[in-house]
């Protein structure tokens, strides 16, 4: 199937679905008198043409505006309004490799590009005996990452310049002002030669001959007509316009000159003026089919698809019947979603010429779009029968195979197509896409690199090469490809916008004005309708009566403006050029996370347009690579660009929101989530993330309704077996039923099980394929049943991991413990457990820390690496490989320190590397998974009566608080005074922005997502009841500050009673916590690490335990400090009373503070060594239960509690001695404290 994030390769460089290569209306159909159609020519994406770079030399386009193959490249191709010194769009100088004197020659199949060196720069011409043949179907795009409405199976040629054969004597002797100019026989012969060279595609030679004729006979309209046509073919549209204007002056009824002039003006961006001249040609010759077709193409470029189709249909009705024109009309009908009419057009085309292969291909494409694959293949087979050796048909069939997933067969057909056109970038790019889809990444990279070399300005090829490099793991190189693709696309569109802006700024009457003026000259009353632009012009002309409009006069003002741009034109061009120049820096700019759409629109990208969708595809790819490279800010900017380019795509809005959310830019995330839900209300993930973002910034409007809907959503998802949209870690802070939260964890546990199974099946099949061993395939583990874990299904599998022998430890044998975490870094886990790993009794326990994340380079990581007995970095290994490594070590017990938190790899535990597996610290809730045997907790956090309601694991209860900390080892330099009067706190409080005259400073340094309206209302009541009190909060995140202050005012909190300060580093945060008087905890999710920080600083806490684990931790912290009665409330009213008493009773508050500070030494909470001994006893007990069978559970587990050890009494004098300055310094040295941790 097509690769995600890929871009289609088509002549107009637009995003198309598989099997559909070229957009309708990018070019006009050929009528046997015009420009060569090259089929698989490279798209024009703002490229100079390099002689020898054949695909680029033959590319239809300049500055992103479709133009004929053989167009002038280099300085001569630059319209004066857009002065660019080094070639189009500043893409660098043009390189020409001369082969014969001053010319270079290159070939593509039967096509030959001749590069002529002239004073104005290199000119490219074509020689091809089949120059006027109808184009065959193009190869399909590399892939379709996004849907598109433009879908034609062949290249649409642009409007063709009209020429005549050598004119008769009567025709050539037309008068100008009554002065006849006879035509000599020599001139007639010269015109015949010029016409012959033109038909051969030798446009430069044609120009030379015609110019000589005009020099000798200035009033030769036929010579001027042919000279202008040759100039048009070379891309010199300004010269074409001048020649045809002069021809009109000589012969006001020369309809071909009006059409050619209109074509040139259209290419120069003067769309409205070009419409007026097409209409003038139709006035002269009402049945001028080519004028109708060219007018249709012009209207199509202006976006008026319906009127364009009308023009094509009128042209198609005129004799003689044209298979190509009918086929292109079908393409337009498909673009208008009138598929039945489109099919009728294709069938009519075949009735004209049953051997017209493009019509068969178009019918095949239409059938493929409707899902009728069998009919599509039947029609494609007919196209192959008609043109079996056509590279275009071969490529089309290959790409049709790609849409069905038959990538290997597609490679065969695309390879054959490539053999015919080895230097065709598009065919090679499509072959590269098929190879990519076949998993042949190296070959795909080779083909795409070749395509890029052939057409260095093909943005799609760069994009798709980036995809291949990304999958090869070459992320930095892939990012470079995506960035170059973006620069090419933006440069192309900016240059097109510059042309349009410059043309609009010239002193040219609009086509509407021209039509009205013409009507006035004809004596017809002008009718001005509301339509604007080309569509409005057509309405006005129709209202005035086209048949009564006389020919328009030559556009003297426009021609003069082309030669000497006006100030306005130069300014418009300069602005557009500046916009193009800034394109390369846009993707790395993070000043505004939501990029203003105006900048894209100024460069020609309208939201939702094909070019915008194409650019969005590349930005999406680049965003993913930036994210993988850890460049989150740049990734978020890219996602924002995608959302703005595709405002009606809910997925892009959601992706942008998630990127902003990951950066903590929650207000921006909320905007994007709301946009996504506005487009598609039925997006569970977007809704769940919107709710979480709103709670993180304390946006409590409609909070009750939001959670009622979220509750219903989660229950419906789990009822239908879907993955819940709420993460278990987020659910801890939500007012949801405990059973529902437990079921949520169970669903995530099942997801881990299935993920592990998929990975194992992949491993098995890969191994079997590599070994050619069917026995290995037979041993692939079956899919796990709902009632069984993957471990149970692996019993007969070679992938089952062995465990340590199930027996009691022998004398002198150590208990082997494996700690697994992604948070051995500057993370709360390392702040809390940094000393735990080194404090284990190495004579009894062998500890190995397995790091599943790469080093962050901080002292926290280095400390653990240097102090733990064994440290293994397994960040680059798969979960199964990590599990095997743990199993091979003979570990008895494995401890999961992540759970359902960021960075966790729970699949490791699905594979059962150890017989006994525990969850601890990282995730304070049930895992809901049978691959976790024990949850380490304590009797206050997890009371027995809540076991069945909240937990699926057996409970292993610590004797005191289960929540360990490292404050004695890391923060011994923070020693607040026993009595507040011992030190003046005014100066340090003022330094961090706290008032010095407050009676009491209440504080809460928890993250804002833990707040809830009821608790906050309680806080405001406390402030009202304690005069002069203030509440100190953190901007955690900053987005919530304004909302909190607004709620406070609404609830009647005293003015200026709530103070926010910024979040501080770890050491500063712990140190400044002592400046508060009372800490107010959040009941839904307590202060955990912060609770330890606050108690270490000597500040009393008021907390209220609820039912779930995360809501009871602070109560356990307080109990381990002997403060349960003083600090733990039994309901919200009691919470308020305890806080008010602490605020009003200064003596009571000081006594409690003194008790807390003494408890740092006398109570078990901060005794890390004691905690480690207790944890070792807990693990020994778990192994004992497993080996002795002291349980009814077949897994050898059961809940248990470790009894406490005696705690020695410490007097106040002993405490003072312990905490003298000398004792502090000595203790710090003995603990091996690293000063870097406090920086």
From TrEMBL:
Transmembrane segments: none
Highest rank taxon of the organism: Eukaryota
TPR repeats mapped onto the chain: 255-288, 289-322, 357-390, 650-683
InterPro entries: OGT, OGT/SEC/SPY_C, TPR-like_helical_dom_sf, TPR_rpt
GO molecular function, one term: protein O-acetylglucosaminyltransferase activity
Family note: Belongs to the glycosyltransferase 41 family. O-GlcNAc transferase subfamily.
Full protein name: protein O-GlcNAc transferase
